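Workshop exercise sheet. Pairs work together: one partner reads the sequence aloud, the other fills in the structure field after running the prediction. Swap roles for the next sheet.
Pair: D.N. / O.F.
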Amino acid sequence: MIRLSRMCAALFLAATFGLAVAPMPVAAQEPAAEGGEGGESGRPVDGYIATAILAFLALFVVGKSARR
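Structure field:
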């Protein structure tokens, strides 16, 4: 069982590094339309709040499992 979990962890680590290092041209946003000066930019605060909640949950799970 330990051997299987170590192998899975090694494969996951290799895949993560492989995806991080692989060069891929990616556009973050589609180009803006010509003549569209202002436009609505969305609601970035919602994204910040959601990211903070997910980060807190991740830290909570790690902290909870480390306490055992």
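Discussion prompt: The chain has a mean pLDDT of 78. What would you look at next?
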